[in-house]
Amino acid sequence: MAEVNPSQQPTVPAAQAIHHELRNAENSAAFVLPTLQSMKMSNPYLALLDVGAGSGTISASFAKALPDGHITAVDLNPNILPRARAVAEAAGVTNIDFQQADVKKLPFADASFDITFCHQTLTHMSAPEDALREMLRVTKPGGIVAAREGDFETEAVWPDLPGLVKFHRFAAELMRSAGGTPTAGRQLLSWALEAGAERSKVAVSFGTWSYHTQSDKDTWARGLIAVVKGGPMREKGLNAGLTTEGDLDEMIHDWEKWAASSDSSVAMLHGEILIQR
Amino acid sequence: MAEVNPSQQPTVPAAQAIHHELRNAENSAAFVLPTLQSMKMSNPYLALLDVGAGSGTISASFAKALPDGHITAVDLNPNILPRARAVAEAAGVTNIDFQQADVKKLPFADASFDITFCHQTLTHMSAPEDALREMLRVTKPGGIVAAREGDFETEAVWPDLPGLVKFHRFAAELMRSAGGTPTAGRQLLSWALEAGAERSKVAVSFGTWSYHTQSDKDTWARGLIAVVKGGPMREKGLNAGLTTEGDLDEMIHDWEKWAASSDSSVAMLHGEILIQR
């Protein structure tokens, strides 16, 4: 669920969306694609629900992968929907629609979808197992629920500049203070079992993302600097007393230094589950 | 470099080797294989050096991948060599030989090998950049140096039982006290540049390993319990005052509990570099 300033222009991504919009099905849902392809062979008219779709870049690539299927993309934040529609239009896909919805109470009948997917959504929730239970409810028997969540505690940044160490602690603390889980990736299986899935019907895998080329590092640092400089992280962090102006300045300085270093990189584990409904 | 009790029988793997012998080129050197295949197209007689080969399971699978090539596998510990030869014999490969050697002073002329490889070797060394410099020295111009190292700080274990939290801290401390680096994976690029590689000639990637099926978890827990119960970790840890009998018992208890949990898994990031010589 992208956090977006309500005052933003719909066609201009907010600071946080710079990162979110790097995502597509190939880099963020590769663990689902083989199953998707094999389901498509027996039924090209698959209905896929993308929960917490944000600006919809992953949803749009699912729409391309399922030209005869239909994608329903939902997000808790209604302000992101115009941006998501613009992203889909720019991608040239029409087999998709967007609506506001809360994953805790999805406005869909039982067994509505063949595939229910989320990415980097459960990590922000205080009761992720309830969300998975709801995702299982709206999924057809024989369908799948697929989730991929980062495990922020495994974030590996080099060089370990002091401002980046502070950033990591601050970001984890901020996530926890909002009810989120910085170790979501490793807990997905556990949440799936709490949501009622049988162990034998859950396939577990782990993926990575990393940035180490100059252009990827520039994009990554630019996005983080934007949220630390004037975005929601600054405001929320200062309001909650989790950081100081001085620390925020050090974070900005060190992300700039990091991006300019020849030996820098950032990588993180993602947990992945595929639940057979 | 496997740490092996000198008194062990050569054909019976020591406790630590239970893990090491799960490794092969497919699961531990996948990032090298496409380059290996393309080099093999122009020269089937490739010479590959595997540094810190331990019991040689990765070396043996390189030997299979290069039937007309030749593998030289070295390890600092001469006591592992009989085991490594037995592994190669069991794998049915003969285009391989093993010898004792120190990566800091490799007994080979400059430009002897087309591919020089190591896995989980630099993480144990106090001057990994010197090892990479030496690996570059023995590699032919046009050849490659490939390294893959775990990043132990990213180890993600669930459930986070108290004994496993203690185990993680203890293992990292033990590694550091022996001169090793628990964040090796993220530092590989930095070490390569210190060793004299040009940034434009280093390709960076990150991989994962994880255990989450019942049989993999049983193997993993059995291996760790063996080293904590009576292997080198217990002895070294107690001698260095890094742990207590009580803590070690708690670690054993909780690895057993972990293996028996339906929601358990362990995953870790690995850093990978390919240096064009």
UniProtKB/TrEMBL annotation, chains A, B:
Residues of the signal peptide: none
Record key words, sorted: Methyltransferase, Transferase
Top-level taxon: Eukaryota
Domain named Methyltransferase type: residues: 49-146
Gene3D superfamilies for the chain: Vaccinia Virus protein VP39
InterPro entries the record matches: Methyltransf_11, SAM-dependent_MTases_sf
GO molecular function: S-adenosylmethionine-dependent methyltransferase activity
CDD domains, per database record: AdoMet_MTases (cd02440)
GO biological process, one term: methylation
Protein's name in the database: S-adenosyl-L-methionine-dependent methyltransferase
Organism: Lentithecium fluviatile CBS 122367
Lineage summary: Eukaryota, Fungi, Dikarya, Ascomycota, Pezizomycotina
